[in-house]
Amino acid sequence: MRLLLVEDDPDLGPLLLEQLQGEGHVVDLLQDGEDALWLATEQTYDAVVLDVDLPGVDGFTVCARLREAGDATPVVMLTGRSDVADRVRGLDSGADDYLAKPFHLAELGARLRAVARRGEREVLLRLEVGEVVVDPATRAVSRAGVPVPLVGREYALVELLARHGGRIVHRDTIAAHLWDFAADVTPNALDVLVSAVRAKLDRPFPEPVLRTVRGVGYRLG
Fold first, then answer.
1. pLDDT for position 123
2. Which of 30, 38, 86, 171 is a good FRET partner for 141, with 20 to 30 A between their CA atoms?
């Protein structure tokens, strides 16, 4: 998933970032509520991990403003407060789940998967574009019935293209989906990734399915 993590604790924030990236997610880490509101309008996320006690605009307000703006991205709120009234306030502000500190890192991952499934059920539906079949539930890809062993961003690229059917996906859209906002991405990083995917998805077969639209982007089919 592509995640927005908003946590101002100088120890917990980097720890959560490392854990979530280690699980294969693309994560943007912010420490401020105003920055979170801005970035949430600039990027598309699968879920938001939002601390309550933020400087300036607190997590309750951030969540409420996102909902007022029509943003339905699943939100998991984090807090050191154990008061039931605070939990109710968090859920009433539009949060999908509420996790009290301290918590096990594995539990956060499980709750994120759960809210993503509730918020966007179609994520788990099998995708088919011609001979290519993508199963997001198992992260399995096959072509003409033959398994294609994609890993990491290779899989993420093919799933993104499959979700667009045979339509063109712009290079900037792909880069924004596969790399976090602060990543130092080299100009040819996407070209290298596409080449790696073609070696597995196209070269063993008579005809290519990963197509380049010069000066624009890529498509399947």
1. 47
2. 171
The side-by-side arrangement of strands in the sheet containing 26-30 is 26-30, 2-6, 47-51, 75-79, 97-100
**Residue 24: closest CA among 136, 187, 164:** 136
| HEC-encoded secondary structure of the chain | CEEEEECCCCCHHHHHHHHHHHCCCEEEEECCHHHHHHHHHHCCCCEEEEECCCCCCCHHHHHHHHHHCCCCCCEEEEECCCCHHHHHHHHHCCCCEEEECCCCHHHHHHHHHHHHHHHCHHHHCCEEECCEEEECCCCEEEECCEECCCCHHHHHHHHHHHHCCCCCEEHHHHHHHHCCCCCCCCCCHHHHHHHHHHHHHCCCCCCCCEEEECCCEEEEC
**What is the residue range of 66's domain?**
2-122
Specify the pTM: 0.63
Q: Are 17 and 180 in contact (CB under 8 A)?
A: no
Question: 77-111, pLDDT tens digit by residue?
Answer: 998 766 777 777 777 888 888 888 888 888 898 88
Number of domains comprising the chain? 2
The pLDDT value recorded for residue 124 is: 52
Which two tokens mark 84?
Answer: 């039931």
Q: Look at the block and give the residue holding tokens 């400087």.
A: 55
**For residue 182, is pLDDT > 50?**
yes
Query: Which CATH number characterizes residue 163's domain?
Result: 1.10.10.10
